[in-house]
Amino acid sequence: MSSLFNLSGRTALVTGSARGLGFSYAEGLAQAGASVILNDLREEVLKESVKKLQDKGFKAKGLVFDVSKEEAVNAAFEQLDAEGIKVDILINNAGIQFRKPMVDLDLADWQRVIDINLTSAFIVSKAAAKRMTAGGKGGKIINIGSLTSEAARATVAPYTAAKGGIKMLTRAMSAEWAQFNIQANAIGPGYILTDMNEALIQNVEFDAWVKSSNPSQRWGKPDELIGTAVYLSSDASNYINGQIIYVDGGWLAVL
Ligand code: GCO
EC number(s) (predicted)? Predict the structure, then answer.
């Protein structure tokens, strides 16, 4: 593999990575040579996932903390500091979905989605960027957008607002941190076969809509996102900043 994509000697923190796309990203970066730190709130699930990677010979560890709580995030980074572990690559993957028409949506449900899907990226990136800047080496921050970073779908308003915010927060990170050799970019997954989308996948009409709405005429697979994650984590993307790369089968490119 070209050294441009080699992540050996680097440490990557992937939030919300005990399962789903987060675990795929973590495994992909580990395959490219990175030491990976998996994060989740579910300690037992996290332990299983860390062991899966360790059993494959990858360097992996788990870190339980709530990405939406600044105190917990700071304590987690201080623990890494104490262990002499520097985060070179951060993937802000943690996120939830909550589907309900806005007129029926409780403010608490709106706030929870915004807190976990948008504000957490600010909180965790702030802690990481402080250390990337202080260390002088810079680093990579990868946020996770969505088709809803560009276009809205009914009944997922807080998710859509958060993912639109992720696109612009990514650009704000570039505005402030590119000078410190931090490259902040985003991945915009299309409709991917994940647990979060299980209800949609099982819905015959929705499944047909996904297949008829994108030129690839199919759902994406989690491992089809790994290449973009490795690319944005590697030296191959050192002059790319503030971008969102859509891995969507061409959905957003065509009418
Ligand atoms: C939904 C889905 C989407 C996808 C993805 C599309 O309810 O429409 O959950 O949000 O997960 O974000 O890009």
Answer: 1.1.1.69
